[in-house]
Amino acid sequence: MAEHVILFAGPMGAGKTTAIEALSEVPVVRTEAANTDRETADKATTTVALDYGEITVGETDKVRLYGIPGQRRFDFMWQILKDRARGLVVLVNADAPDPVASLIEYVDEFRELYDRGGVVVGLTRADVASPAGAGSSAGAPSSAGALPSAASLSDALQAAYPDMLVPVFTVDPRRTEQMTTVLLTLVANIEMRAAMAPAEEVH
Ligand SMILES: Nc1nc2c(ncn2[C@@H]2O[C@H](COP(=O)(O)OP(=O)(O)O)[C@@H](O)[C@H]2O)c(=O)[nH]1
Ligand SMILES: [Mg+2]
Q: Cα–Cα distance between 133 and 145 in angstroms, integer?
């Protein structure tokens, strides 16, 4: 029986809590507090500590799901969980101010999880993002003002990290079956990595 710790990271409002609630087989433990940063995301509450859920994959593999703070001032918690984790799901909302920059920032921050297990990306809120909302009011269509697509995120990752293979999905975190696909992709990656590096386990 294997056990995996998987982190969900991404900007505030990207859907981390929603994703863990969609996946978890146990009631999700949520820690929320008043959001004092209404400029970044107009939500009354946001996650300042953690979301925690669990799901069983296959017959016996327990996967612990942690949603971690989207704000840098809680960095100490990132470190504690980063040390335990084997995989990372980065959720980036299409209506974020700069989804590509956010994605690169989180992948960079959690780079060691790629080396240890795997990273998968979910582009969220594609259904609510609009070209106007994304700030492309300059007139002539240009790639700079275009809405992010899974392909554009994938291209940006490829350019920033030519050695990394990171699947990018467009997902709605409210949809359990979509999040299950993301999670199983990551778990398969982690298990493949473990199977290919038996020497590391023996040490
Ligand atoms: N329409 C739509 N709403 C979404 C999507 N993803 C997340 N949301 C909503 O966006 C809000 C923020 O999600 P939340 O899970 O709280 O984000 P967190 O800050 O990353 O934990 C919630 O109201 C979600 O239901 C999506 O793909 N489509
Ligand atoms: Mg949250």
A: 10
